[in-house]
Amino acid sequence: MLREALLRIGSRRSYSYKSVRRPNLSAVSAAKSQELQTPQPKPAANESPAHGEISLSKQLRARILATGPITVAEYMREVLTNPQGGYYMNRDVFGREGDFITSPEISQIFGELVGVWLASEWRKLGSPSPFQLIELGPGRGTLARDVLKVLTKFKQGAEFSMHMVEISPYLSLQQAQRFCYTHQKLPEDAQLPHYQVGTTATGIKAYWHSRLEDVPPGFSLVLAHEFFDALPIHKLQLIEGLWQEVLIDVVEQPESKLLPEFRYVISKSQTPVSRLFKPLPNETRTCLEYSLEAERHVDLLAQRLAEHGGVGLIMDYGHLGEKTDTFRGFKQHALHEPLLEPGTADLTADVDFKHLQHVAESRGHIQCYGPVEQGEFLERMQGKVRLEQLLANALPENKELIKSGYEMLTDPKQMGARFKFLSMFPSVLNDYLKKYPVAGFS
Ligand SMILES: C[S@@+](CC[C@H](N)C(=O)[O-])C[C@H]1O[C@@H](n2cnc3c(N)ncnc32)[C@H](O)[C@@H]1O
């Protein structure tokens, strides 16, 4: 009875929304890391619970039918992080077996050079002790492991702790297994700002937090690799001088299981976000993606660095405020229609570095450097020297893999140009950093 009533409300309401078309997905640049060259077998990770998949789709349908179309941000948040069926919440999605592969997973050189960068900037700032290494969205924990290796070597007797900001219970366990000697999940009612603790083989304490706000204050070295592209975006369009929002509605009667059960519609009037949105000066786009969540995270980071000192490094694929439509899905190393089978594919959007930089610098306490292209950064950090060292000590059968991994990270036609690095420093250091420029950025 209730279900029927909901369906009826849904039918009447959704006819009054105007459908909007998306550009051809194949025309969207394919940067969710590097697409693998060879076709991949269907991964075990994605054969995951048909039960979970269906229920997420059904949940979204029921919600839209009950309360009306939802924002792309709400859709993305549910699809990626819904505690039951969310894409990141209970499976390993990385590597050849998963849906995409990220730089730290391709070559250890990536994490090592990021570690060297952190250590050298930390030393330049007087080697403050204690300090904390914070990583947002650590995935499998590979970057943290490689950075830890370097920091442990270069810490010169300083004390530090590790703080992982991770929403996925499954991935937090994988991370702990990757770089901790012992680890422990804490009871849900522990009322602590962290939900898991661990200790590395060299005695460094590691903590897992659900939110950046929960990480204790202190001098921090902060990393975010492919974190910002996973944060929900709003899609906005300028129509007759007003910003309107693209929403997601149900398809009344999907014609086939191969077609999405959802469709894009344009909001009938301004939404809270489209009303709040303030374009940057000189904005010429009439259609763009805007991430409130990214804005919130950068603002928190900026406040932390300004108040307690530290440096931030954001690494991701993105643009400088010119792209309009990059929201897409990834499944088995190929583009995937984001409205099809929610929960079974990654959803992502290119990071707007111009927006991040503007937010970071807007309070006047932070100076950003970059963005620079990944290839440039790694080459400036002496990636080739490290490559030669590794090759000199590698088994003959591994040499090709080591070489091609480094090439994939640095070649502008592969990941070298699409991925960018943006660093953040407290602006009280401006004069000092003019004298001793930030490594890798000049
Ligand atoms: C694309 S993966 C990147 C993983 C890793 N940094 C790498 O490059 O291999 C995104 C990571 O961010 C986490 N994540 C996504 N949304 C999050 C949120 N709102 N809060 C905390 N972690 C989040 C995911 O669980 C995952 O670990």
Automatic annotation (TrEMBL):
SUPFAM superfamilies, per the entry: S-adenosyl-L-methionine-dependent methyltransferases (SSF53335)
Transcription is among the record's keywords: no
Pfam family, one: Methyltransf_28
Keywords: Methyltransferase, Mitochondrion, Transferase
Enzyme Commission designation: 2.1.1.320
Subcellular localization: Mitochondrion
Catalysed reaction, written as an equation: L-arginyl-[protein] + 2 S-adenosyl-L-methionine = N(omega),N(omega)'-dimethyl-L-arginyl-[protein] + 2 S-adenosyl-L-homocysteine + 2 H(+)
Classification of source organism: Eukaryota, Metazoa, Ecdysozoa, Arthropoda, Hexapoda
Listed GO CC annotations: mitochondrion
InterPro entries: NDUFAF7, NDUFAF7_sf, SAM-dependent_MTases_sf
Family of the protein in this entry: Belongs to the NDUFAF7 family.
Protein name according to UniProt: Protein arginine methyltransferase NDUFAF7
Protein task: Arginine methyltransferase involved in the assembly or stability of mitochondrial NADH:ubiquinone oxidoreductase complex (complex I).
Organism: Drosophila albomicans
GO MF annotation, one: protein-arginine omega-N symmetric methyltransferase activity
Residue segments, region Disordered: 28-52
Main localisation: mitochondrion
GO biological process: methylation; mitochondrial respiratory chain complex I assembly
